[in-house]
Every structure is written in C-alpha cells, then in structure tokens.
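User: I've been trying to design a sequence by hand for this structure and keep getting stuck. Would you show me what you'd pick, starting by listing the structure so we're on the same page?

Assistant: Good idea, let's start from the same input. This is the structure you sent:
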C-alpha cells in the first residue's frame, strides 16, 4: 500500500516538473520591444503554478505557503490545525472514559464497577458522553476546515504571486458635480483609483 502511494507521489511530482518546463514555452514575450514597467514584469523562466501550490499544501500543510514564499503563515497553519487536533484527541479520551463507564453501569452485572460509581448518575454519564462526543466531532470538523483553508490560501496566494505590486496604489473618494440632461445639477461622489 505504501509503495503504491509513493509511486503516485513520484508520478505527480514528475508531472508537475514537466508542466513547469512546458509552461515556460507557452508564455508570450513582448514582441514589439516596448518597454514594460518594472512592476509588470513576470519571471518568465520560472512560472508560479497555483495547482502546484494547492497540491503541495494538500500533501503537507504549509508546503504551498513555503512555495509561495509566505513563510510567516506556516506557524499559524500548524498552530490552528494542531490545536484542533489536540482538542479532538483530549475530548476523545474523555469521551472513551464516559463510554466505558456507561457501558459498565448498564451491563446489569453487579460485579462491574465504573470509575464514577457513587459520584455520577446514569443521566450524568449520558450527558457527559454526549458532550465530549459533540466536542470531539466539532474539533475534527474545525481541523478539517483549517486544513481546507490552508489549501485555498496556497492556491489564491499562488494566483496573486505575479500580480503587480505598486506602492502608489490608492483609492480616494472625490466629490463630483454633474449636469443632467434637463439642466439640473447632480451632486455625488466618485471613486478614483491611482496606480
């Protein structure tokens, strides 16, 4: 089983390396020899693949962020997923304690004694059983959501990797006055983008 998974992983890595090689040839070069602003230049020798970033983050959470050179996100990802998994494991341990105690309490054998005998009633055991089961399930769901957000973040960040970054990008609201078709004055506001 592990050999099959390893073979598939090697195949995927080979496929992405071929995709990177052929993607270089398909990029258009400015044929008019016009000067392109520095903020719009894209590294033609090494295209940035959103699919590669997403698959890398799927295989190992945070690897896509490393591919995108957003190293500061990796501890956040591991902290979020790790915390969720920690609470899932702890809630599962407590859930199993109450499950075992409830099973011993309801087996109709007077010789079996659970750890909560004399302290908790059957209703309290059932209530705690349900509480820790729900918390365990929610913790697993939250860990899955953080895992999915890790993949989405890597893909979106890879899409925006070659987006022109300009320090002069701004948005202003400017008051305007316009003359309508029936010669009435209309006051308003317009959005002005500077880039």
């Amino acid at each position: 089983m592990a050999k099959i998974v390893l073979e598939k992983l090697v195949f995927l890595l080979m496929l992405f390396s071929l995709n990177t090689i052929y993607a270089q040839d398909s990029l258009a070069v400015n044929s008019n020899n016009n000067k392109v602003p520095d903020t719009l230049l894209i590294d033609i020798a090494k295209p940035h693949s959103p699919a590669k970033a997403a698959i890398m983050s799927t295989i190992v959470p945070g690897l896509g962020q490393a591919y995108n050179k957003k190293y500061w996100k990796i501890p956040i990802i591991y902290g979020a997923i790790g915390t969720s998994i920690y609470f899932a494991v702890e809630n599962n341990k407590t859930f199993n304690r109450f499950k075992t105690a409830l099973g011993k309490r309801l087996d109709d054998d007077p010789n079996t004694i659970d750890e909560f005998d004399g302290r908790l009633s059957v209703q309290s055991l059932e209530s705690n059983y349900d509480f820790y089961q729900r918390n365990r399930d929610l913790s697993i769901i939250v860990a899955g959501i953080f895992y999915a957000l890790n993949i989405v973040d890597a893909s979106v960040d890879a899409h925006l990797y070659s987006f022109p970054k300009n320090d002069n990008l701004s948005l202003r609201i400017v008051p305007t006055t316009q003359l309508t078709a029936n010669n009435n004055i209309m006051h308003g506001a317009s959005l002005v983008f500077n880039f």
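That's my pick for every position. To get oriented when you compare it with your attempt: Residues 48-164 form one domain. Strands lie at 170-179, 185-194.
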